[in-house]
Amino acid sequence: MADEAELDEMLLKVLTAIFKETQGAPDSVISMWTVGQGLGLDRAEMENLSMELVSQGLLEIKSLSGKVALTETGWEKAQTIEPDAARPKPSDDLEGFIEELMASLENFGLEDQARKDLEIDLATLQGQMTRSQRLPRVVEASLQAVKETLDSAPHPPGSSLLSILTRLTAAKE
After folding, report:
1. Pseudo-torsion of CA 146, 102, 31, 110, nearest 10°?
2. Which ranges of the chain does DSSP label H, i.e. alpha helix?
3. Whole-model pTM?
4. Rounded to an integer, what is the distance from CA 58 to the centroid of its chain?
5. 115, 122, 119, 124: which is closest to 153 by C-alpha?
6. How far apart are CA 150 and CA 144, in angstroms?
7. Which of 4, 40, 100, 118 has the maximum number of C-beta atoms within 10 A of its C-beta?
8. 54 has pLDDT over 90
């Protein structure tokens, strides 16, 4: 069994990993199993560490399937440890989202037409980024089209991209 110092170190690693995976977005939900896997932890270890974070008021369980979110206290603690993980401005989110999605298009297993449609939607969003004033309805419609395409992808994107997309679509509603 790990000593107390090792346990504290692992708790901080889990806390910061959740913060990084959600890109510092308060109220973002992520699978604790995915985070644990990324840290090389088995399910039992991740469950124990997550429950310890819950008992400390830093994490809350959002679903029985293992979805978790940082509490406000957990977010504040993680922010002091990993301040660069948070994205400061929504416009940066959109630009970063487009760049990251463009770089990983091959990974989603989309059929040719779905991929072409996604590329067109992303090009539309890029065009809106360069306008002097964005057209909110165009951005909303393009984000919705991107979301629908990614939701139907055989190999959906990772949680960080989905987290950004969720924030972007929520900000537009």
Report:
1. 60
2. 4-21, 32-38, 43-55, 72-81, 90-103, 112-130, 136-151, 159-172
3. 0.49
4. 18
5. 115
6. 10
7. 118
8. yes
